[in-house]
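ugh finaly. both done.
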Amino acid sequence: MAPTLHPFLRQLGLRLPILQAPMAGVSSPPMAAAVTAAGGLGALGLGAMDAGKARAAIHAFRAACDGPLNVNLFVHRPARADAERETRWLERMAPELERFGARPPQALREIYTTFLDAPDMLDMLVEEKPAVASFHFGLPRADQVRALHNAGIVLLATATTLDEARAIRDAGLDAIVAQGYEAGGHRGMFDPDAVDSRLGTLVLTRMLAQSIDLPVIAAGGIMDGAGIAAVLAAGAQAAQLGTAFVATDESLADAGYRERLAGAAAHHTIMTRAISGRPARSLASDFTRWAADVPDADVPDYPVAYDAGKTLHAAAKAAGHTGFGAHWAGQGAPLARAMPTGQLMQALEHELDRALS
């Protein structure tokens, strides 16, 4: 039995209440195109790209598919420079780097520009007019919201609490991605230093569905059609799946990432701040073990800490060791399936129909 789609989804031209999470460094134009072609909403994570690379990725999607696309932007606060803390961080990491024949960098950089300080990215989006733009770590400015809405772009943002969802509503955005604590990758918390209420996907979805008059898209731990049906029953209008797509043929995940996702590490995901500077859920790895006893206060701000993390990963990988990658995955990781994206979408649709019948 096919689900009854909310008008919000029909407006986007979707046939299924399935969104592919916009995973920076993992999602690809072929993956997004396959999801959209199957009736869902494909997505690209643009947060690690400049405007030129982002435009090229959008064009690559459009060369393969003429349906809707969600592009995701990071709206984190700029990193607070703290030379003393950053120096101590590099000193702490130095033995690991030296183990792989590398030296710590002289200094750390803010490797990703927040959308709040990227007028060229805003101009590109207004020109390209993707169907959807979504935001992680906070909200765009009011003038950015107006410009994107004037271009006909539907706007989403991630919430991990009711207060964040209310802020999304009050900012005039069109829908909320309710990110449960089970989700892989970075927590969408507006303030990474706030106490995390750690609400699960079903609880958060139910709270927002009852309290906020906007479409809710549930995210976190959803891996199959039964999971999609569960969040729809809890009041979501759609489900967003990320980890479910990491093992697909079109994923940009490397061999080490895929090997860990298919192994014992998938059963032991860890929430850590040490890899990037913000709380994020990762597969258990040498990086998470190294970071297990590191106080959050010692970690430099995002994305400065990510510069160090990527340096360590590159050194380890060059030495044939894959245990220091950013292997983001949610608690549903053991349910991941390796197959083409289009085949996974067919399976999800079949499972959802079966769960609803």
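ok and the 2nd:
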Amino acid sequence: MNQLVVVSFDHIDAARDALRSLRELEQKGQMSFEDTAIVSRDPDGTTRVTNEASGTTETAAVIGGLVGAFAAFVFPVVGIAIGAAAGAAIGASMGTGVEGTFVDEVKANLTPGRSALFLVTRSVNADALTAALRPFEGEVVQTTLAPDLEAALAEALR
């Protein structure tokens, strides 16, 4: 089951650095991401949202590519457009990412000079997650983790 973890950080670059640490855990097989995003608010108040290619996007692209290749074989010129449309429709129907309205809500509440990290995980080693985020100062915005795991994460970020 996918888990949602949203953490805000006291420094603008902290979310990016934390995600880098978490990607190392992913490479070691200790967690797997479905979707990730970073929201930051510059000191002048400008907000930035950085989305990474997610598992859903990758799956939709592969399926869209296969549909497009088949359609291109049958209808050469139209095949590419059909494949792209199929990939987009599949990705949208899978709906496993973070809701845009929730991202907007966090973005609106983020003060200048801070950042937030959105994680949708397929699997997570809670101890490894907590250890990876311990060097960063921040606070838990929302999670779907068990209450004791959420409390441990909140404590690690203090």
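summary for the 2nd one i guess: The chain has two domains: 3-53+98-156, 56-93.
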